[in-house]
Write a structure and sequence with these properties.
The protein is of the alpha+beta class and 430 residues long. It has 13 helices and 13 strands. Strands 1, 2, 3, 4, 5, 6, 7, 12 and 13 form a nine-stranded mixed β-sheet that branches. A four-stranded antiparallel β-sheet has the order 9-10-8-11. α4 packs across α5, α9 packs across α10 and α10 packs antiparallel against α11. The protein is globular and about 70 Å long. The protein starts with 7 loop residues before the first helix and ends with a strand.
Length: 430
Amino acid sequence: MSEQSATPAFLNYLKDLYGDASVTEQLQRYQLLKDQFTACFPADPEPIFFSTPGRTEIMGNHTDHQHGHVLCASVNMDIIAAVVPVEQPEIILKSYGYDKADHIDLNILDPQAEEKEHSASLIRGVARGFKDRGARIGGYHAYTMSNVPAGSGLSSSAAFEVLNAAILNALYNNNRFDAVELARISQFAENLFFGKPSGLMDQCGCAVGGFIAIDFADPEKAQVTRVPVDFADTGYSMIITKTGGSHADLTDEYAAIPAEMKAVAQALGKEVLQQVDPQDFYRDLPALRESLGDRAVLRAMHFFDEDQRVQAAGRALEAHNIQDFLNLLRTSGLSSWRLLQNVTSNRSDHDQPVTMALAYSEHLLGSRGYFRVHGGGFAGTIQAFVPLALKGEYLSGMRRVFGASDVMEVGIRPYGTRTYSPETGNSSAG
């Protein structure tokens, strides 16, 4: 597929979604997707295209499980799918680079033990989420390709869930569910079918698109608000570095953070820290230190400060005050490092990849850049906001240490899921 052979409507779809500079690359990508779909499903007609982005956490490190506030955004890396509805009550989905296709019998919508922690469980769980809402479900053939790197902290699994929710929403429900409801359906699938107790941030970031603020005061009715900002005009580039750390055997360290925060809240007669008056916390600081230890108290201090920072950062973005936002982001990163203490794992003195990435970022950028641990911490990724004048130097330095393919410049995508029908030439929100 070339720019000469592509229809004007499809070219406009690609330009709107990926930018003028990426059209040729995306034409080749979508042609490969279509060719692979046809090879898998040779009897099927022309497919519909879907695109769902990954997401990045901007601020609000470990605040969601305490019913606090979070800032996140969708990114310009996505999972794309070629899809055709079928009459049979079965979903067959094949993903590029994987030998086995997922086959989901829509007459069986209970969790299947053998599917736990596999992609089939997410598809089945999404279908069950639609059925529980009295919505229509039906079969489809799909072939997917993703450039959201696994293990990058950019929520490749949430993007996959939201993609399948958007497919059922478009094919069988006339897009009756909004983006936040698709996120809830996706979270349901991940929690109860895949077996991962995630919050709603990842799915909302993929489904809604752009910068968003989430208030988890009532987790069952989380409030999601778009933050109007065009980050491309700020003079900074966002760069994600996969540090090479492994999440294996870190479950207890992750679990200790919400457990210790909740222990502080319970010592003050509440369930989570969002319900605690900070004045009561600081009044009882000596007793809390004695009964729970300093680390739990420091992590609670992080929550109180971080929750306020997130709200201040949202106001700064709404006012287009980028410098205030970046200063708050720097303070957030330091708080995660010093108070939350989710940068260095206690498992190994030898391997400290996140600490190394943050320290080397400070060496390269000094006070001119802004960087923080990205996501849950202990292993995984860091996020840096780098002045455009320093981008080349920073990318070169980080790639030399962490590998060329593991240091990625990431843009903010203003859209959640998008669909395109070659038959009609129409594109729409998923």
